[in-house]
Write a structure and sequence with these properties.
239 residues, alpha+beta, Phosphorylase Kinase, domain 1, D-amino Acid Aminotransferase, Chain A, domain 1, 2 domains, 7-stranded antiparallel beta sheet, 5-stranded antiparallel beta sheet, 14 strands, 31% helix
Length: 239
Amino acid sequence: MDKKELIYEGKAKRIWSTGDCDLYISEFKDDLTAFNGLKKSSEEGKGALNNKISAHLFDYLENKGVSTHFVKMLDENHMLHKKAEVIKIEVIVRNIATGSLSKNLGIKEGTILPFTLVEFDYKNDELGDPKLNDQHCMILGLVKEEAELDYIRYMARKINTLLKAFYAKRNLTLVDFKLEFGRDRNDMIILIDELSPDNFRLWDSESGEKMDKDRFRQGLGGLRVAYEEVLKRIMQGEK
């Protein structure tokens, strides 16, 4: 299936229309950004790695009963997926305190949280992706009713439970991650976007080494090597 019209270009992907009005193609880019685009770079091969990792994780979740936009991986950098209307809420799922949670609330980095924390951010770069509560979501018209927010939280926790176990078998600790949801042509809420170390914080379960985009954020280097190792463990675990 061929790309037609460029629909959207974000920090990490380009979205293209296809000859089928219900299907889009995501092109995974090598670009790297952090701190709402203030820090920028690129890493050759990063897009292909994120595409492969995302394809495996979407397929895994689909087999566990999670509805997603994923159809298939087309090639190294391109994924075919269902068209979906994006719900402009970034869903942050946290198991261990780090990053902005530690900075904003003074919780010591590495603290295991007493329960899975699910937060909402407004998907709006101009405003710096501010935090949302349920009333904000309703005032902004981001969902049709509050029950949809409850459903999104339920799905986020379900995905967290599945992926924590998935990564634990591969000697990786799922620290926190970002999810996005959208509406398919039947108005059903489904998981969209990508599932990669760009959106996940993953630590090696033994050494504590960071295996995600924090290697770029914190100037640690070795980002591609870390992503390659994540993909390698995913592939080995499937054998």
